[in-house]
Specification:
The chain has 143 residues and is of the alpha+beta class. The protein is built from 4 helices and 7 strands; from the N terminus they run H-E-E-H-E-H-E-E-H-E-E. Strands 2-1-4-5-3-6-7 form a 7-stranded antiparallel β-sheet, sandwiched between helices. The radius of gyration is 14 Å and the shape is globular. Residues 139-143 have low confidence and may be disordered.
Length: 143
């Protein structure tokens, strides 16, 4: 559920994408020309960060590894291109959440996948469009 507190947490996070070409540290609303170049080289125009960890913003470290494996299995079954990602909160009391940067999957399908794993939002972006944005899952048209 979208709340000002939860939105602040998402905004105070670095979304690290790990690729064979190096890591990209993305922030919501902040352009990253090097990541845009990476996307262009891989002929991708849309990206999203999805995790299965800590549904409902409730820490559940005992379940996160299993949830992460299940998410990766779903992504692979769908045939989506992806890279490993990690959500690094600015605050010290929240662990890194493993996830995936998925390339060129449809926004509706991404939101449905994230909702299946109890997530409140996904981070989505388009190459050259000024950085990612939050797409909330419990509101009309994901806004």
């Amino acid at each position: 559920m979208r709340t000002p507190c939860l939105e602040a947490v998402f905004l105070a996070t670095t979304y690290r994408v790990e690729t064979p070409e190096g890591c990209f540290d993305l922030r919501i609303g902040v352009s990253d020309p090097a990541f845009d170049d990476f996307l262009a080289r891989h002929r991708a125009s849309f990206w999203s960060i999805v995790t299965a960890c800590n549904p409902g913003a409730t820490l559940s470290p005992a379940d996160n590894a299993e949830r992460d494996r299940a998410l990766r299995g779903r992504i692979e079954a769908l045939g989506w291109r992806y890279y490993r990602a990690g959500n690094h909160a600015d605050r010290d009391d929240w662990p890194v959440e493993p996830g995936y940067c998925i390339l060129d999957a449809g926004a509706a399908a991404l939101c449905a996948l994230a909702a299946d794993f109890g997530q409140a939002a996904v981070v989505c972006g388009a190459a050259g469009q000024g950085g990612g944005r939050l797409v909330w899952l419990n509101s009309p048209a994901g806004q």
